[in-house]
Amino acid sequence: MTSDWRARAACRDVDPELFFPTAHTGPAWAAQVTAAKAVCRGCPVLEQCRAFAFEGLRFGVAGGMTEQERGAHRRSRSAPGRRGRRAQRLDQVRDDRYLGRRLLADGVSPRDVASRCGVSQRTALRWAAALRSELEASAGEAS
Ligand code: SF4
Question: Do 65 and 50 meet the contact criterion of CB atoms below 8 Å apart?
Fold first, then answer.
């Protein structure tokens, strides 16, 4: 049963916030990720959790991996042919854009977003401009 392993999770009695770093970059982010991974390291159901996280968890540390590590692993697991490589690249672009826009919406600077998502500052600025227009459009609709 899917939920059986959860009853044995090492994080069961740990504040769930630990697994969702509030920092986005730098030493603070690294320290938060390290703390969460330390719990995972001693978890008896790490493998089950990791398999679950690969399939269904987009954000946070789970199964001893960050969301970026899971995304990279997912992409590297699929052995792409010519069409597959294109699909894989599109998946990566979509993931990067999704994460980038989320970070921008949280107030992270385009420069940090570029570094975190592995894109150029120009791309991060483009995402920021698109996000601003969407917010302005939805504010216009609401008034
Ligand atoms: S691997 Fe980590 S996130 Fe997953 S159940 Fe264990 S402690 Fe929790």
Answer: yes
- Per DSSP, the three-state class of 122 is helix
Contact of 9 with 18, CB cutoff 8 Å = no
125 Cα–ligand 1 center, Å: 35
Domain ranges, residue 108: 84-143
97 plus 62 within the same structural domain: no
CA of 101 to the centre of ligand 1 (A): 27
115-125 per-position pLDDT tens digit: 877 788 999 99
Least confident residue range of 28-37, 68-77, 90-99: 90-99
What separation in Å is there between the alpha carbon of 42 and the centre of ligand 1? 9
pTM > 0.70: no
- Pocket probe for ligand 1: among 20, 43, 54, 55, the residue whose CB has the most ligand atoms within 8 Å is 43
Spell out the residues 6+ positions from residue 30 whose beta carbon is closer than 8 angstroms to its own: none
State how many domains the chain has.
2
C-beta of 36 in contact with ligand 1 (< 6 A): no
Claim to verify: residue 91 and residue 71 sit in the same structural domain:
no
